[in-house]
Amino acid sequence: QVQLVESGGGLVQPGDPLRLSCAASGITFSIYDMGWYRQTPGKQRELVATIFVGGTTRYVDSVKGRFTISRDNAKSTVYLQMNNLKPEDTAVYYCNAKRGGLQYWGQGTQVTVSS
Questions:
Q1: pLDDT tens per residue across span 38-96
Q2: Do the Cβ atoms of 19 and 31 come closer than 8 Å?
Q3: How far apart are CA 10 and CA 113, in angstroms?
Q4: Among residues 19, 40, 22, 16, which one has the least CA distance to residue 104?
Q5: Is residue 95 packed enough to be buried (19+ CB in 10 Å), middle (13-18) or exposed (0-12)?
Q6: Distance CA 97, CA 19 (A)
Q7: Which residues contact 103 (CB under 8 A, 6 or more apart)?
Q8: Which of 62, 63, 33 is nearest to 50 (CA)?
Q9: Nearest to 79 by CA among 24, 27, 10, 2
């Protein structure tokens, strides 16, 4: 049974940092590309950051320079370090594992940025 379990969300003030974690089980983590998506009510889920099997990373323009995605294959965990958070970063953040035609999702963790 595949499980992706996100943690680390919460309520923070603008400018604060936050680190999300996603622990995977039931898959060979090291051979999956891992991503973080986010979604707000009424909007499509948006790809925020991806880290590929080889370690290459990609980010949506709105988070470049503020967010960093990383992975620890020994712990089967992917992280999203979010710095200088803005109110527009408020969303439910989802972890995603992808390999070929296979794709798995976590349950999501809420991030709220508000003063």
A1: 999 999 999 999 999 999 999 999 999 999 999 999 999 999 999 999 999 999 999 99
A2: no
A3: 8
A4: 22
A5: buried
A6: 18
A7: 96, 97
A8: 33
A9: 24
